[in-house]
Design brief:
Layout (H helix, E strand, L loop, with lengths): L4 E2 L10 H16 L6 E5 L6 E5 L3 H14 L5 H4 L9 H10 L1 H10 E3 L5 E3 L11 H14 L2 H10 L3 E2 L6 E6 L2 E8 L9 H7 L16 E2 L1 H8 L7 E4 L2 E4 L2 E2 L6 E7 L5 H16 L8 E9 L11 E2 L3 E4 L17
Antiparallel strand pairs: 1-3, 2-3, 4-5, 6-9, 7-8, 10-11, 12-13, 13-14, 14-15, 14-16
Helix pairs in contact: 1-2, 1-9, 2-7, 4-5, 6-9
């Protein structure tokens, strides 16, 4: 029997990007790699959640994720090369969705056509000013591929999602198309999926902190790519009172990510159901399963108001917890792989 692989690098201190990375890893394995038996579970879900995957060996986990992240761009090229996704028309969305399975999975979570015209963007899009979502995704994909991706994946999953001040990712420089012995430091776009990004961005409403890039706290590009793979789970849909989104409270006002941490193994479809139910559970907690804790990460800043800081999701706190605080999942509360 395969044991739970505890992803120690995706613990609570890395939320929300760490939780998104765990969800994204599950979606990649199940939906893209066809491993329907893989399950997600959280150790100590009510107090200090750490995700784990059941139904896959560690070597296979790393190889499949690394191969997928290296070969498949975050979005189809026609979308990835655009400056603004909001410029898409409903007709273009339908055409792309019918032609490309990846576009079909991502577009319903990225954009919702509004009745009066225009598009409602995903609350997960924290871009502003020159930091466009597509540009950030391109830069992170290139950065991950130019480094030792398997090493980066192991580091993110088992050590942590953040690069600290002075921690540099290096790539071998190329001269006339050939690899050389010179190394060059990598820079890449940042996303507001961790509270550390707010502390450094809040100094200026228009531009991020003027610190040199490698002195900033940055989300590892592999963590960003894994978290990006969770985006299709946060589906946008219309409601009588406006726009709703799976796993998001108040998407039209001050959005908060709602992150379920199930204490028993769940399938990808069960996770989808929990994310859809999460906003409703805030109104009526009686329908929420007691073995699943719910963590909330508010977004500060605003994507359009120039005087506001860049949008960043900050520290996740529990909003729904069952009576069994500190409950242990199968395999116990200690690390074991």
């Amino acid at each position: 029997m395969k044991e739970v692989i505890w992803l120690e690098g995706l613990g609570l201190e890395g939320f929300p990007v760490a939780a998104l990375a765990a969800y994204g890893a599950l979606r990649l394995l199940v939906e893209e790699e066809g491993m329907e038996g893989v399950r997600l579970v959280f150790r100590d879900p009510q107090s200090r959640p750490v995700p784990g995957l059941l139904g896959v060996e560690e070597r296979e986990l790393l190889c499949r994720l690394a191969r997928r992240l290296r070969r498949v761009p975050p979005l189809p090229p026609e979308l990835l090369e655009r400056e603004k996704l909001e410029d898409l028309s409903p007709e273009e969305m339908r055409r792309l969705a019918s032609a490309d399975p990846r576009a079909r999975r991502f577009l319903p979570a990225l954009l919702l056509p509004l009745p009066g015209g225009g598009m409602f963007p995903s609350p997960l899009d924290t871009s502003k000013g020159q930091q466009r979502l597509t540009k950030t995704l391109r830069e992170n994909w290139e950065a991950a591929r130019r480094t030792h991706l398997l090493k980066g994946l192991r580091r993110v999953l088992f050590s942590g999602v953040l690069l600290g001040p002075g921690e540099v990712l290096w790539a071998w420089a190329r001269v006339r198309g050939r690899a050389s012995r010179r190394r060059s430091p990598l820079e890449f776009g940042l996303v507001g999926w961790h509270p550390s990004q707010y502390r450094q961005w809040a100094e200026g409403a228009r531009e991020p902190s003027g610190l040199p890039f490698h002195e900033k706290v940055r989300i590892h590009p592999v963590a960003t790519l894994l978290a990006w793979e969770a985006v299709p789970l946060f589906l946008l849909y219309p409601a009588p009172d406006g726009v709703r989104a799976a796993g998001v409270h108040d998407p039209e006002g001050q959005p908060s990510l709602l992150l379920p941490t199930p204490g028993h193994p769940v399938s990808l479809e069960a996770l989808r159901a929990l994310l859809l139910q999460a906003p409703l559970a805030l109104q009526d907690p009686r329908a929420w399963p007691p073995e699943v804790a719910l963590w909330r990460s508010p977004r500060l800043g605003h994507p359009k108001r120039q005087k506001d800081p860049y949008p960043v999701y900050v520290e996740a706190r529990p909003v729904l917890r069952g009576p069994q605080a500190g409950a242990q999942t199968p395999g116990g509360s200690r690390r074991g792989r």
